Amino acid sequence: MIALSYLMRLINLMNRAIGNLFMWLSVAIVLVCFAVVVERYLFLNTRLWMQDLYPWLNGVMFTAVAGYALYRNDHVRVDIFYRPASTLRKAWLDLLGVCIFLMPFAWVVWSYCFTFVQRSWRLGEASANIGGMPGLWVLKSFILVLAVVIALQGVAMAIRSILIIAGRYDLVPDDYKYKYDTETA
């Protein structure tokens, strides 16, 4: 059980680091978008690569921080069933949700997109816009990053659930315990 706790902590640490790094892309997105608007309306000029850049940064940011969102419990869930549940029931719901929905979703994303991304790398794919951003293959690669980070965080969620079901709530770090517990067991 202690080894599982360490694995969960390692996955959480990794997704926190990725989330804290990639969330700064939101600042870059705003700055690039602002520069595009100023350049277009003030200087009557446009650079297509910059117009490609901010939606691409947006895509990279949101796919990279998906595991962090799961870690922080910022994902969509049916709160009418989950919020009033006891800690033990939340653990069971999370375990079932990870096994029935999250892991199959991550597998489908990975398996269907792998050849898509591989082809993009092989072609050295760039923007369809003339004068647009090169390296569309980098952006498409983040689809696979999405599958990996959510699958890993799903493993951490499953471990948390197993620890709680096994009565080892003490092995769950404080920052990963359920918030607003209605009861401890």
Would you write up a description of this structure?
- There is one protein chain.
- This protein is mostly helical and 185 residues long.
- It has one domain (1-171).
- The chain has 7 helices and no strands.
- It has helices spanning 2-22, 25-42, 48-64, 66-71, 79-82, 87-123, 136-165.
- Helix 3 packs parallel to helix 7 and helix 6 (87-123) runs antiparallel to helix 7 (136-165).
- The radius of gyration is 20 Å and the shape is elongated.
- It starts with a helix and ends in a 20-residue tail after the last helix.
Summarize the SSE layout with pairings.
Blueprint (H helix, E strand, L loop, with lengths): L1 H21 L2 H18 L5 H17 L1 H6 L7 H4 L4 H37 L12 H30 L20
Function: Part of the tripartite ATP-independent periplasmic (TRAP) transport system.
Family: Belongs to the TRAP transporter small permease family.
Keywords: Cell inner membrane, Cell membrane, Membrane, Transmembrane, Transmembrane helix, Transport
